[in-house]
Amino acid sequence: xxxxxxxxxxxxxxxxxxxxSRALQDSYEVSAHTKERVxxxxxxxxxxxxxxxxxxRRNISKTIGVVIPEVNNHFFSLAINGIEExxxxxxxxxxxxxxxxDYDREVAITQYLTGGxxxxxxxxxxxETQEFGHLLKLQATKPAIVFFDRVCDSIAxxxxxxxxxxxxxxxxxHLIQAGCRHIAHLLxxxxxxxxxxxxxGYQAALQQYGLPFDEAxxxxxxxxxxxxxxxxxxxxxxxxxxxxxxxxxxRLAISSYHACNGLGRAIPEQVKIISFSNLGxxxxxxxxxxxxxQPAYEIGREAAKxxxxxxxxxxxxxxxxxxVLKSELFExxxxxx
Amino acid sequence: xxxxxxxxxxxxxxxxxxxxSRALQDSYEVSAHTKERVxxxxxxxxxxxxxxxxxxRRNISKTIGVVIPEVNNHFFSLAINGIEExxxxxxxxxxxxxxxxDYDREVAITQYLTGGxxxxxxxxxxxETQEFGHLLKLQATKPAIVFFDRVCDSIAxxxxxxxxxxxxxxxxxHLIQAGCRHIAHLLxxxxxxxxxxxxxGYQAALQQYGLPFDEAxxxxxxxxxxxxxxxxxxxxxxxxxxxxxxxxxxRLAISSYHACNGLGRAIPEQVKIISFSNLGxxxxxxxxxxxxxQPAYEIGREAAKxxxxxxxxxxxxxxxxxxVLKSELFExxxxxx
DNA sequence: TTTATCTACGCAAACGTTTGCAGTCAATTG
DNA sequence: CAATTGACTGCAAACGTTTGCGTAGATAAA
Lengths: 337, 337
Known about the structure:
Two copies of one chain form a homodimer.
Chain A: H1 6-13, H2 17-24, H3 32-44, H4 51-58, E1 63-68, H5 74-89, E2 93-98, H6 103-113, E3 120-123, H7 133-140, E4 144-148, E5 159-162, H8 164-177, E6 183-187, H9 193-208, E7 218-220, H10 225-238, E8 244-247, H11 250-263, E9 272-276, E10 290-293, H12 296-313, E11 323-325, E12 328-330
Parallel strand pairs in A: 1-2, 1-3, 3-4, 4-5, 5-11, 6-7, 6-8, 8-9, 9-10
Antiparallel strand pairs in A: 10-12
The structure holds a DNA duplex.
């Protein structure tokens, strides 16, 4: 154990603990001379304040929690980058919790977080989550919450999202203009607002171009890639007329590639694919994948900024602080005519 | 602020704080009846112990810190998955710190961590790091440390690594057997042991097959993808005879693809590429990338297990607990004859 | 009965920090 | 000279939890 604490410094300098504490905080109540002495010794002994004592006393932890479904996903890892960047600049620490899309884990995690461990929370809801009681409970306690991407509308707070309806529309329209007439929609979060928005965009585009909406062409995936590939294979087999796939999540696009390869369906000649994705190597795939790319890094940054600003000003976060960023469509060979 | 604390519970139940605390810990000193009453009220009021008070008193934080260069990298994100998995099972929380391969950030982070914020640390050293004074300082304070992948040999503790020398040899041999005679080696951590091991494997293979070692064919990359692509392009232009690339890091393989595409060099006909990588879509690239794949998830799990075991038993971690896992070579079209 | 043992609970200190308040000493003012 | 001010510093409480020790009452043993 590290026993370099204020008491130790105070003893060695023949000062009181209070003065040492104030000196290290550059309080105006301490003479320049004393400050120097204190700081010199602190540096020499490599003093680092005990975070827990400080947090306990000040009721501030300088820590934020990030609750996300998974980290092995380009969207979330880029978002974490943005979050960590902002947090570090403001001297905040980042606790990471993964739900693995599992509702029970999400509940357990939010329960932990009511313990005052964090000053604020950035969260992207698990796809399985359908009830929000745990989030309401969480909000009832101290920490401020900002949702990003997978938001929860039942909680009155700020959200950072992208223009999902438009993007869903745009993606579908892109496939239609490339000649697709039987477009499947693969998603993973049908019960979350983000999933609904994209789905509505998909439906709106179909309607605008006079194509029927066929519920059987909507596939609900999960976190298991093998299962997803099997589901997609089954769909393509059952409905051989499918000539376009709009994937709402990166992993479903990958599974679609595998399914098409397995069935010998040529991309883009027989099936065109477009997907929400932050895959850096999308352009190097065979064929290069057309993507709707969300500004993941910026989303992380902006969400963290809103959160930290609220924490520092001790003001509640208002829904009016919500932000909607724009995704971008990158046309590549997987949707070529 | 959440004011449901032991005091509150004690008052409502007409018990002392001590008894309430003990009841919640299932202490044998409390009657079954009282335990029930306490737990019932705790559940009703959604009591969650204050983590900071508890940590301060017990000098245990139930938190580990993970210090890695970046998260937007399949190796590290898979490793985090493994770490988080093990930590969660044991009731530990995970603080994430990113160095962005920057030495100064690494120093600042290790300084934070001397403050007793964490019980243990899992670390993969930044490629820039050449001095280890900050790590020695860190080790002098409480927290246990386990290194994984990018290890530091100067610190006496356990490491979880892969068979890097063998893999470097194997990768190079694979290229030679595929017909390459002028093999470039791209790396990012030449001054770290991991980089040296792979490099030695590379050199050993060259020697065994009677090929000369040409220092000009060794390229030291960094964290900037555009710069790396430019460097590789320059190398391929200056040395048009290069017919094989052995990349020590995923991002350098990606940059190699871009460089080759830019120069119109055909993969694998003119240049064959093999890389250390955990890229899930390696098989879907154009052409599919031959990889040496490290068991990233297991590395994370094993490192976390060693760390947590040591923390729980309060025993120091010995270098003899180090683990070497095996990487696997996946042959794909990027190295086809 | 006395003594010992056991059960169930409370008192109070301790963890290391922050901070309101009070105090000391010297310098300044009336 | 007394009174006031201001610059520094110290005392001690507080944050919420854990835990060594003490104790009251009950039961068992002597």
